[in-house]
From TrEMBL:
Its cofactor is Fe(2+). It catalyses: 1,2-dihydroxy-5-(methylsulfanyl)pent-1-en-3-one + O2 = 4-methylsulfanyl-2-oxobutanoate + formate + 2 H(+). CDD domains: cupin_ARD. It comes from Acanthoscelides obtectus (Bean weevil). Gene3D superfamilies: Jelly Rolls. Keywords: Amino-acid biosynthesis, Dioxygenase, Iron, Metal-binding, Methionine biosynthesis, Nickel, Oxidoreductase. Transmembrane segments: none annotated. This is acireductone dioxygenase (Fe(2+)-requiring). Pfam families: ARD. InterPro entries: ARD, RmlC-like_jellyroll, RmlC_Cupin_sf. It comes from the Eukaryota. One of its GO terms (biological process) is methionine biosynthetic process. Its EC number is 1.13.11.54.
Length: 206
């Protein structure tokens, strides 16, 4: 059975388990309630014929399978950057052991350990990051089932919070270009509010 727990904020070695003292585990029900992340079990050796997997794909229309394996230190560094997607992301562990850190609605990190056969559905807009445990750096294999041609965001939460504050909206639609420039879709009122905020907080001129 999958395990999940609140992690400490020790920046050393992301691949350690990072339990708090004492450990504070999280049930699947609490994980879903505070993050929206769903958990399923599938057959890792025959997942494409697994009834649960096929039903999820049919119901949610996800498509495009990307296999991730033989992660090197640079891959892990990139994957451990906090980010979110604009679509629901499916992750199936086929081999090894991985950790998904999920930021809950109270702004705390929950670490979810996934082993072969574990399938996570991470909802769009949910901040997360990924690493593997200390023993499987070159053996971890997973599948990403996602919507095609949709970009991700690695923009820092602090800046997104500013945009939400000046817009008055709960959500802002945006995407990241290949040059990592933020493209934001909003009206002239938000542009004016953002301009005022920048002038007040960063002491810039026109």
């Amino acid at each position: 059975m999958v395990r999940a727990w609140f992690i400490d904020e020790d920046p050393k070695d992301p691949r350690a388990e990072h339990h708090r003292t004492p450990p504070k585990f999280v049930s699947l029900e609490e994980l879903y309630r505070t993050t929206g992340v769903e958990y399923f079990q599938v057959d890792p050796k025959n997942f494409q014929l697994d009834a649960t997997f096929r039903k999820l794909i049919e119901e949610r229309g996800n498509q495009g399978i990307e296999e991730i394996e033989d992660l090197d230190p640079n891959d892990l560094k990139v994957l451990y950057v906090e980010h979110f997607h604009t679509y629901d992301e499916f992750r199936i562990c086929l081999e090894g052991c991985g950790y998904y850190d999920i930021r809950d609605k109270f702004d705390e990190w929950i670490r979810v350990e996934i082993l072969p056969g574990d399938l996570l559905v991470i909802p769009g807009g949910c901040y997360h990051r990924f690493t593997v445990d200390k023993n499987v750096c070159n053996k971890y294999t997973s599948l990403s089932i996602k919507y095609p041609n949709i970009l991700n965001s690695q923009q820092p939460r602090s800046f997104l919070n500013v945009l939400t504050k000046v817009s008055g909206y709960q959500k802002i639609n945006f995407s990241m270009t290949s040059s990592m420039t933020l493209e934001i879709i909003f009206d002239s009122r938000i542009l004016q509010n953002l301009r005022i905020y920048i002038l007040q907080h960063f002491h810039t001129s026109d």
